[in-house]
Every structure is written in structure tokens, then in C-alpha cells.
């Protein structure tokens, strides 16, 4: 007789299999739930909420105070520029002007001592204490440098005469004394700048720059006219029918003679007249007084 299986033992395997199946389904469903994207409606709502919150926070946030940047090299340069502007010239401009003055002085010094042909840019640069490259940055060539230097010399001479020769200094002085004083000034200037004026005359003869020739001629003419204007205070003592015209001619005559005497290497005046320069000057004054018919 075959024994019947027990009901308890038959039910246990069924329950265990059901539980295992349920556990497997749950595990399989979990990663799928993790990988599944959120619903479009919920994602949009969440993004909108975050964006609105950020915008609201930005609007309500207090403005941040400006942070001062530390002054480094740039700050130092800016302060230097402001300080220089208050004085009228920037340091670089002051240095540039000083270099220009040195070059003008050095150019005249070199041409006076060594002559026009021997005055080279390296020599002038050395005399000025600057490099030749510095000179070429300012002037195209030697001629350009010498043009500037000669004009500077003439301008300086004119300024000096205007400061020294004034109408106030002639008050109370008779014309018979004022005329020799003017001649003495002309003679002294020609002697003091003899070599430089000789180089200038040579440079003017060789230069093809019409603008430079005109500028130089105007400055020289202004120097003569300064003397004429000063001596016009004695117009009533001049018997010439045209006092101003007579003074212009007299100054040009005297100036040309003095220039020839002082600038010529071998003065024909001295050879012909057999006089020294002082004696020539005295005779010239007598001739001018006679021409002007001074009373």
C-alpha cells in the first residue's frame, strides 16, 4: 500500500517558488525605475521653479561695492602723468626739449670749431651727449639738423637783442652817442659768433631749401629792423628827407661792411685802408653820421 504525500510538504515548495518569483520581479523593476526619465510636466515645472528662484534672488540681491584695484605699475604711471600735466609738460617732453637744446648748441659748437664739412652727425651727437641714432630719430639728415641749428642761433640772437636793446635805455642819450652804441652791438655780435656766421653764410650759399633761406633772411632782417625802430626815436635829429629809409640804408650798409670785415678770412678792407678794425669802425661811424646829416 503506497503512502499518501503529506499536504504540508506539498505546499512548502509552492510558496517558496512564488516568493522567489516575486523577489526577482521586484529586483528587475528597480533599475528600470531608476533609469526611467521623469515625466515632462514635472521636469519643466521643476526647471521653471529653479529659474524663477534664481532671477528673484538676483533682483533682490544688494549691489556689491566696487573693489578698488591695487595700484601697480599702471597706477604709478597714471599718477605721474597727472602730476606732470599739472606742471605744464610731461617728463618725457621736458627731456625731449632738453635734448633738442643740447643738439642745437652742439651743432653750432662743432661747425664753429671744425667747419661745415667736418661737422658730422656722430661728432655733433657726441658733443651733445646723445647717440647718433637719437639724432636720426629727430632729423632726417645732417642738413636738416644744421638748418634747425642755424635758425635757432638767429632766433636766440634776436631775442637777446630785444631784451638788451630797448627804447627805455636810450632815454636821455643823444643820437651822437646812440649811433656808435648800435654799431658796437653789431660789431660785438659779429665777432662773438664769427665762425658760426661764416658757416651759416656758406650753408646758405649751398642750400637749395628755399623755405630755409627765407626763414633765415627774415630773422636777419628782423635784427636790422630792431635797430632801425630804436633809432627812429631820433628822427627829428636826422636831416635826411626820409629818416626811416635813411636809417634802413645806414644799418644795412654798416651791417654788410662789418660782416665782410669780421667774416672774411683775409680782410680786403684792412689791406686797402691799412687800418685795424677799431679804426675802420670809427671811420664808418663818421660816414653814417654824414649820410644821415645828423644835426
UniProtKB/TrEMBL annotation:
PROSITE patterns in the cross-refs: HTH_TETR_1, HTH_TETR_2
Keyword DNA-binding (UniProt): yes
Classification via Gene3D superfamilies: Tetracycline Repressor, domain 2
Region (Disordered): 1-100
Keywords for the protein's UniProt record, in alphabetical order: DNA-binding, Transcription, Transcription regulation
InterPro entries: DNA-bd_HTH_TetR-type_CS, Homeodomain-like_sf, HTH-type_TetR-like_transc_reg, HTH_TetR
GO MF, one example: DNA-binding transcription factor activity
Annotated region of DNA binding: 120-139
Residue stretches making up the HTH tetR-type domain: 97-157
Ranges of biased composition (kind: Low complexity): 15-55
Name of protein: TetR/AcrR family transcriptional regulator
Amino acid at each position: 500500500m503506497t503512502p499518501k504525500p503529506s499536504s504540508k510538504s506539498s505546499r512548502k515548495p509552492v510558496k517558496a517558488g512564488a516568493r522567489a518569483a516575486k523577489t526577482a520581479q521586484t529586483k528587475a523593476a528597480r533599475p528600470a525605475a531608476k533609469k526611467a526619465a521623469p515625466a515632462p510636466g514635472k521636469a519643466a515645472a521643476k526647471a521653471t521653479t529653479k529659474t524663477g528662484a534664481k532671477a528673484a534672488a538676483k533682483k533682490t540681491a544688494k549691489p556689491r561695492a566696487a573693489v578698488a584695484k591695487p595700484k601697480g605699475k599702471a597706477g604709478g604711471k597714471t599718477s605721474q602723468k597727472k602730476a606732470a600735466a599739472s606742471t605744464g609738460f610731461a617728463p618725457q617732453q621736458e627731456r625731449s626739449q632738453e635734448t633738442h637744446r643740447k643738439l642745437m648748441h652742439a651743432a653750432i659748437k662743432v661747425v664753429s670749431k671744425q667747419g661745415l664739412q667736418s661737422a658730422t652727425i656722430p661728432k655733433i651727437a657726441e658733443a651733445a651727449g646723445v647717440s647718433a641714432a637719437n639724432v636720426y630719430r629727430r632729423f632726417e639728415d645732417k642738413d636738416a639738423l644744421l638748418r634747425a641749428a642755424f635758425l635757432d642761433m638767429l632766433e636766440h640772437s634776436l631775442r637777446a637783442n630785444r631784451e638788451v636793446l630797448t627804447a627805455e635805455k636810450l632815454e636821455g642819450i643823444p643820437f651822437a652817442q646812440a649811433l656808435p652804441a648800435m654799431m658796437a652791438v653789431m660789431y660785438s655780435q659779429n665777432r662773438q659768433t664769427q665762425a658760426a656766421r661764416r658757416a651759416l653764410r656758406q650753408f646758405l650759399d649751398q642750400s637749395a631749401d628755399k623755405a630755409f633761406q627765407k626763414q633765415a633772411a627774415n630773422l636777419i632782417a628782423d635784427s636790422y629792423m630792431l635797430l632801425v625802430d630804436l633809432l627812429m626815436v631820433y628822427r627829428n635829429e636826422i636831416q635826411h628827407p626820409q629818416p626811416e629809409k635813411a636809417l634802413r640804408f645806414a644799418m644795412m650798409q654798416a651791417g654788410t661792411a662789418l660782416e665782410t670785415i669780421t667774416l672774411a678770412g683775409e680782410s680786403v678792407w684792412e689791406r686797402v685802408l691799412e687800418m685795424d678794425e677799431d679804426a675802420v669802425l670809427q671811420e664808418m661811424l663818421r660816414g653814417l653820421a654824414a649820410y644821415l646829416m645828423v644835426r
